[in-house]
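Deliverable D4.2, example record:
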Amino acid sequence: MKVINLGEKNSLLNKFVAQMRDKKIQKDSMRFRRNLQRLGNIFAYEISQVLEHSEKPVTTPLGIASVPTHDDKIVVATILRAGLPLHEGILDYFDDAQNAFVAAYRKYDKGEDFHINIEYCSTPDLTGKTLILADTMLATGASLEIAYNRLREEGEPKHTHLVCPICSAYAVEYIKKHLPGDRVTLWVAAIDEELTSHSYIVPGLGDAGDLAYGKKK
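Output generated by the structure prediction step:
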């Protein structure tokens, strides 16, 4: 599996990530959501460069222009709820894409033990399409793997681009082992080395869903 870390290059992306991590700035939920959208814009632009393109004629008022545009049929998917602003940012650029949504969350059993529970999935047929699956944080990788496999029940994508801005090193290795590397690319903005015993990324940024939409029960 190819892992592309956009945070390794100097760009505005790192400014947005820094603001998302900053415990003072992230108190502004509107800015937190906006920065996630901005990251979605950047990831979408970068992904667009690796899609299949062909020249297409466009009629202008004065003649015909030949313009290379992508041929892929795109489906943008996200895991509710933290991934919604990121999803919106990607959709800003792939504005003609179809959409898919998965509701997956940690369901605690006893103490700190938990399993990933999926309650809802809405997706078009994915057969032969390019799937962009976005989730703000990748801690263990388990929820993303389960969501990916659930989506594939509705058709096998041609290729899948995973967009996960903040990842743990553990999750990156997990995804490499459990997803088909020849048909999946992982796009990240930062890889943090530490994952606590409670599966929290350090330094991370906290609970992305709460920061974007407020605390839940």
